[in-house]
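Might you be able to consider the sequence and fold that I enclose below?
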Amino acid sequence: MFGALWWLSCLPEALRFQQAAGHAQAAQANVLQDLWQRNQSCEYFRHHGLKRQEDFRDKLPLVGYSELEEWIDRCARGQNNVLCSEPIRLFEPTSGTQATKLIPYTASLKAEFQRGLSAWIADLYGFKPALMSGRAYWSITPPAERPQRTSGGIPIGFEDDAAYLSGWSQRLVRSLLAVPKAADLDETITQLLHCTDLKLVSVWSPTFWLLLLERLKTHWDQWASRPALAARMAGGLPGLWPQLSLLSCWADGPSVRFLPALRADFPNLFIQPKGLLATEAFVSFPLLGRRGAALSLRSHFYEFLGEDGCQYLPHQLVQGRTYEVVVSTGGGLYRYRLGDRVRVTGFYRECPLLRFVGRTGVVSDHCGEKLTPDAVELWLPTRAGPCFVAFEAGGYVLYGEGDLSEAVREGESVLGHYYHYRLCRQLGQLKPLRAFQIEENAWEAFYARMESLGRRRGEVKPLALRLEEDWSRHLPGHWL
């Protein structure tokens, strides 16, 4: 009942998206006009000399978080009308490459997220109506330990994932949740085991779902000994959630290699790749039967940086080409470089369909080797547990389960084709690629280290090349 009500509440926005998809240029022009009208008096616009809407792209610079940090800090101290004219309701923390970022949230930004989510849910439930009659697990991860308010008294962090929504949509979603509140791993598993009508699991990283399953299997007797669960657990893992039919998670870019592990215990589970969602912006959402995720045209104003150095609007994108995403949102981030690269896989009417390719600017460079994730993903093996490359003790190390001998030989051969890496090896600046064999069930150790660095479990990306070093000190295993 509640699922059907949520679906019905999403239909009006889904119809508006359909109209926008047929007129992408006009839809984006309307988004920019609304953004300008609401915030034209803010200090950030005045600082850059904006006097009319046409000045937006001409006078505002492309920025990253570091360029906005002083502005955001002023907002956190409680100053008004700095980045936007609306009050900032809260700051949502997210992990940056070097430090935690605080993203300002306004009522407008929440509405922008809700537009994208509504269009996705309307499509998903419309094509798979059986999902409406059961409950769902949406990843609600414990927030990192931090002050609950900024120095200006503004809250930090949402109470849970449903808080991204507004009004009665928020209440409807909470009624559908198998785990209504943020909980630790054991409590999350306990609540999931009691959810006999679980039909949908929506997590960010596929590794987080693998972490839950790993802990459940490792400590199976802990739950199987409870009288209320013993009968259900007697049949093993496949019988725990007989109605589970869909898993929504990252399944593009570096996440692809975890798909076999996801299907190992639930071979009939339909895995729907998520679109591109960041703490800062809702970029795209999947449409069933379409190759790629639809740009959420009604959420934000988008620009794209091409590999040729030029800037493009959504209606100017070309199928098959790769771009970096730039967003302008109702939260006060204007012409903001997300750092995500996408490839255009096609179009839904006039709306671009996008596939996440990877992050920009992720380079490991200790002695001039300039190693990038693309160079590693060419040969990285598929493993159920953590599998990645990182720097340690003078050279790069492949960390993963099982026999890694062949992968190391192939990896050293492939990396040798990259000029800077080859030169560093020839000069003796880098040791040869080595292998560290991780014990099975190592996800807990992996996530424990990430949490010690201030990263929240649900937002840790499964990167092929990690910039954190000395992983052998944190993962159970041995050198090969």
About this structure: The longest strand covers residues 336-348. Residues 55 and 424 are 47 Å apart (CA to CA).
